[in-house]
Amino acid sequence: MKYTKKSGLALLPFLVFIVIYLGAGLIYQAKGEEMAFYMFPSVTAMFIAVLVAFCMSKGTINEKFETFSRGAANVDVFTMLIIYILAGAFATVASEMGAKDATVNLGLSLVPPSLLAAGMFVIAAFFGTATGTSMGTISALIPIAIGVAEKGGLSPTVVITAVVGGGMFGDNLSMISDTTIAATRSQRVEMRDKFRVNFLIALPAAVVTLILLLVFGRPETAAPLEDLSFSLVKIIPYLAVLILALCGLNVFLVLLIGIFSAGIIGILTGSMDIAGFAQAIYTGFCGMNEVFFLTLLCGGMSEMIAKNGGINWIIDKLRGIMKDNKSAQLGIAALVSACDCATANNTVAIIVAGDMAREVSHELKVDPRRTASLLDIFSCVFQGVIPYGAQLVVAASLANQASETGAVYSAAGLVGSMWYCWILALFGLLSIFVPFADSVIRKDPWNWEYDCPESKVAAKKAAK
Question: Structural domain boundaries of the chain?
């Protein structure tokens, strides 16, 4: 539905959400809590913001709820929710049947001990891309990485940040990552198209990082690794999901194939029984509850803000700054970066910034595939370098637990060594002014008048 009203006051619910979420994090951090910015749930902060939106809106309670429901029940929001729970189910089933351990051990067995810093980056990148989670990658690899670094004479800080950087590479590109789902659905583009644009930016950043790790990450002495047993058949679900998604198969079918292939392999190999398979699917569904509820509430609130004129007000103000395509891209990158610094969650940042970014893109004719790529890239960049983000906090915590030398690692101390994220930011900015990543866009130009879903629906109705 197209709204014409303009009002900066309509954005107050967004401001309330950021103030509560960021403020609570700062307070808990001052109290010395380790995961300070995750103590106050983002869903609760968003719920309070929704209540503020209800109080600000005019009309009866039924009219307000109708507006909220229109946003929450939007086809893009609903599609996103289903993809989230299917991705959660696949990740859980695959992990419980042993795919995670098999993938890690396979990667370590293929990497020479003298190249372990660069090797850990590659393993983390593959693992993150296959599983769609930087946190899962960090949790699985950091205990191994810190042990290898301390015994083999490598710089522990370099190895830790190599793992986190590889995890962020995978999180940014994976077809089943929360950030990919949020970025593509909010901009209404295909995952495959966003991947192609994104890959041409992330790949050179990864190559430069890899070269730096090969040069500066070599150990003084190469330590032999312990026994690394694995079963190749257990890696098949990850490979299947990755290949099928890249081939352009519908994402629902990709995830369903992944879930059932992982379950069948798990049952045949004795890693789980039928009841365990069913429980793993349910656990995976439940594991996505935070992002599920957050997306639902944010979708409804965004519709209320749009009706009250908030989105139109932003676009009107940004016109003075974003005068052309390139400045619009810079603005979108800055918008999602600021949201991530405020929320310390890259998925939340994309969800919050998504609607505004889409409207700005439409206004200034930025290809939505490009917008989706920018949203994912810059949210991941800042998520990987803010010292209060979960990735660096968990990496430092796990490294401290696994360290046998008594060394103490801090999230703030890792920021300077997050080479991949800093280099990705550089290539992301460079791609705006030197469009080397837009080959897909040039071959298949986007036409706002005919290619966007709303226009297609309108055309069908007119034909009838």
Answer: 8-403+412-463
